[in-house]
Amino acid sequence: MKHFVLSVRIIFCCIVLLLGICSLTVTAQPSTPPFVYGDALPDAPVLAAKGEYGVGVRTMDFVNKGQVDVLNSKNGVDPLYDRPLKIEIWYPAILPEETKEFVMYNDFMGNPNDSTRPLIPFTFPGRALRDAVPKTKDGPFPLIIVSHGYTGSRVLFTYLTENLASKGYVVVSIDHTESTHKDAAGFTSTLLNRAKDDLFVLERMAALGKSTGNTFLSGLVDANNTGLIGYSMGGYGVLNAAGAGYSEQAVALFEKYSGGSKSIVVLSTNNPDYKLSHDQRIRAVVAFAPWGMERNVWDAEGLKGLTVPTFFIAGSQDDISGYEKGTKAIFMGAVNADRYLLTYRNARHNVAPNPPPIESLKPGLNINEFYHYADPVWDLKRMNNINQHFVTVFLGIHLKKEDFGKYLDLNEDSNEKNWTGFKPRTATGLELLHASPQ
Q1: pTM value?
Q2: Are residues 212 and 179 in the same domain?
Q3: What is the rounded distance in angstroms from the CA atom of residue 291 to the CA atom of residue 351?
Q4: CA 21/CA 286 separation, integer angstroms
Q5: Lower CB density within 10 Å: C or N end of the chain?
């Protein structure tokens, strides 16, 4: 009897232990929260919704060899270095049955150049599957290259990058070295390298996407059909990459603050080689609050070089890039491009990023951790949905030949008449201008 009782107790303990292990195993599995950045709110415009494809995501490291190390330029002499670039790639993917799209992204708050803003790591969830099998059957897909601001990161716009991948694009977002939340350094590196990084990544993606290759991108990428998306300093870069040359004043200012380096001349309007170097694979540009016009980075001649269809997005109270003398002035000056300007009335600069991370709400933090993302008037989740809608429309027209024209054939003031694609009473506080090439 004693042996029987002892056996029962041992069996009972084993069962309890086994249940405990199972419980630990279950709770350790990640589960997607009910709301993730980019999910469509009830009042989201129609094309903000996720597309038909599952979404995969992978991280890769590129190295652009022999680049000017402008942060160490002295007396007009430019040393060279191998410039590393970490990129995140979202793409249409095959998802195993009953597998949820779930990924955790890593980023930092703070600023390495500001002692009042120490670096604070944080994570946030997304709707993609890490290293998923690409869906090459329906490819190749148009390529989208995304460029963040100063400072920023490659995961600053996951609401948009995931959304576009679900609609049949390969989306590449760059960590611009010496310009991220984690490694921000002298501003001259950002001035010089933005457009160069974009074009280098385009070249690498074209090579990796060849159907005869043996990478996961082989046959997946149509680099001959490329769109660029940039925010703030990223907008500054994509406009130059697409043909808007920097002015003589911009070259002189750069030389003054870079130890006499003349390396940015290769990106200037007056350089004959720049005018001949325009990459014809770039078919469309989206520029969120592009920086530089108020600092005379562009002049009338430089803006004439932008001939690619361009969609500008800005806040009417932008106090970083400017509005009337900033983004709107670029829109007015790019006379050779078919172009749109979507304006969030009374918004400031942050018209592009994800909403503020939860960690930025902690008491005692520098308010800039919150206001690096937030807007004092607009809800970022609402702005994200509107951005998804219009970027889908614009890129769909120019990269996929989608019949989306009705979503741009709108009255200028959204308060006067509800816009096509918006639910009744939801298109408010917006303005859309359009200008055809001269």
Answers
A1: 0.93
A2: yes
A3: 13
A4: 50
A5: N
Where in the sequence is the domain holding 2, given as residue range(s)?
Answer: 1-30
Same structural domain, 14 and 102: no
Number of domains the chain contains: 2
Q: Where are the alpha helices (DSSP H) in 82-186?
A: 158-165
Alpha helices (H) in 340-379, listed in sequence order: 368-371
> What digits encode the pLDDT tens for the residues 222-276?
999 999 999 999 999 999 999 999 999 999 999 999 999 999 999 999 999 998 8
The pLDDT tens digits of the residues spanning 266-303 come to: 999 999 999 888 899 999 999 999 999 999 999 999 99
Contacts of 175 (CB under 8 A, 6+ apart): 85, 86, 87, 88, 148, 153, 154
CB 354 within 8 A of CB 373: yes
* Residue 2 in this model has a pLDDT that exceeds 50: no
Instruction: Answer yes or no: do 21 and 51 share one domain.
Output: no
Same domain, 9 and 113: no
What's the rounded Cα separation, in Å, for the pair 235 and 157? 14
